[in-house]
Amino acid sequence: MPERTDHPAGDQAGTATQVFVDHRELVFAIVYNMLGSVADTEDVLQETWLSWTGRTAHAQADRIDNPRAYLVRIAVNHALARRAAIARRRETYVGPWLPEPLLDEAAPDESAERAVRSESVSMALLVVLESLTPLERAVFVLHEVFGYAHTEIANVLDRSPAAVRQLAHRARAHVHARRPRYRAHPRVRQEATERFVRASLGGDIVALMEILAPDVTVWADGGGKAAAGLRPVRGRDKAARLLAGYATRRGSGLDIRYRRVNGDDSAVVFDGDAPYAVMVMDLTPDGEQISDVFIVTNPDKLTHVRRDVGTTAEEVSA
Hints:
Blueprint lengths: L7 H28 L2 H20 L9 H25 L31 H7 L4 H12 L4 H8 L3 H18 L7 H16 L3 H7 E10 L11 E2 L1 H9 L9 E8 L2 E8 L2 E10 L6 E7 L14 E2 H5 L1
Parallel strand pairs: 1-6
Antiparallel strand pairs: 1-2, 3-4, 3-7, 4-5, 5-6
């Protein structure tokens, strides 16, 4: 094996690459929770990589005392800059906008590597976070989800700790006003998801009326590229009729697989080999009924969905 001094540039590049790989999943999770888009997150990671290698190429890597903090700072600021582009796209978006589903596809040999990605917050909470300012959202994600201290966040955002604490207070108050802290037990969520899928794709109006909360809201994101309403549908009667309508496609070969999406039990619907929809349900605080249904049918947001993973509806019923 050659001595390190024989190839200093190569060794330095290799070290820089390994440092980035070691922290990639953490950076991905933070940025995704700030943006709600897998595609934009991957772009931000590419920008972060270029910034990181640009720094290390100038032989300054040894001066970075905390590479993890440095990478997070770069990524968060790139993500904040990208929020402006996302906001412009939203101005012309057709119908309700939902975050891009993040599916848990961890294999046994990479479960440790992807453990950090499970920190992604639920679809329902991501929808609430969309109503925060970009800085409030960054502070909320770093503090509430990843446990960063206000002083650490101040260094990341180049703000004073007092300013960060104020942002954190506003964000937390806003989120908690719209999103109860209580979350139903995973088994309760799984059972509710399976009941909902059987009722909606089976066209069972009576069963849907039982499981849907009176003030349920159905959010369908087709982006103008797939069947979806232009506005959220509110109220149990309207929602039940809308959802039962999906049953008309059941005979055309829809295949339902149960997966974890943004940490919650959900249903992924395939039409042949192509992903047709991702359906995520949010429960009332008592866990008895469904308060929100999030349906993503925009094909641009389903490009990461694979058919060969997950439990089928037939396997669940067996």
